[in-house]
User: Fold this.
Amino acid sequence: MKQITRLSMAPLCAVVLIFGSSTADAGNPSFESYAKARKVIDAAVTAAGGATRINGIESVSLETSGTGWARNQSPKVDKPFQANRQDGRVILDLAGNRLLVEFDGGFPGGVFANRTVITDEAKFVLNLRAKTIQRNDALDPANFEFWHRLFPPLMLRKAVQQAASLHYLGITTLDGKPQHMVSFAWDNGLTPTLYIDAESHMVSKYELLFPDNLTGDAVSELAFPGYREVEGIQVPTGYTQTIAGDLAADIRYTDVKINQPIKDAEFEAPYGFRGIAPPPTGAAKVVELADDVYIVDGLANFGYSVFWVAFEDYILVFDAPVNRAVTRM
Assistant:
């Protein structure tokens, strides 16, 4: 978690000192775009609770409940996609370099209950139903930045830290309300676009461009339908996720805690869980099992294989490729 924590805890004021007001660059398109974006972000920081409170966030705990739609695994290709219960919780311990993500819900193949833990000392995944533990030193905290972006105050903190990349994209409407659009560069190269209400100055949603397996280049968005105050900070009541125009999740935040004590036991392996072999760490390889029958073996971090059979007119794939790199194999 070091990368996430280090960047998340940087003070907002440090960027203010670098990017103070200036008249020398007035009229320069890049500077004007930055200046407009910075004004919008500063107003949003104030509306969300102020720089001091947002800078003081050392931990966030979320308990969630809602519905997810199996867009990539639904039994039917056509809509509507299968809906499944999707409950969970997230603990972002920014001060302690620790992350916990837990899911309890359903998917087209049945039900699951998993917990992923990343600390400086250990990285493992628990199957809470089968009572197994799989240690995996290859787990990358950067894979979990999505959870960081579930909390708009932390997104605003990141935007200020990345102030040099701020761009004002103009004004639009969302549900009939005017919205300022501001983009900035995340540490991993992603460029979220924030929609910030022109009247309340609250983050209404954010968008990201990404390569979608079903539609090609597409937009993923997380919209925050409402806010409430916790520890003087405006926190969302939940979110809806839309992928390439398809509703993917409708989640409520049933409980939000900021800077509350976190038990060390949350990040420890429970007693009595049976250990299973860690996922492969070597390079994945294609293995021919028989004529026109193949398997991709050794997919690190995923713990399963991709199997396919080549027929005369088509190819039948089981457990479809997880990303472009696997597809190209």
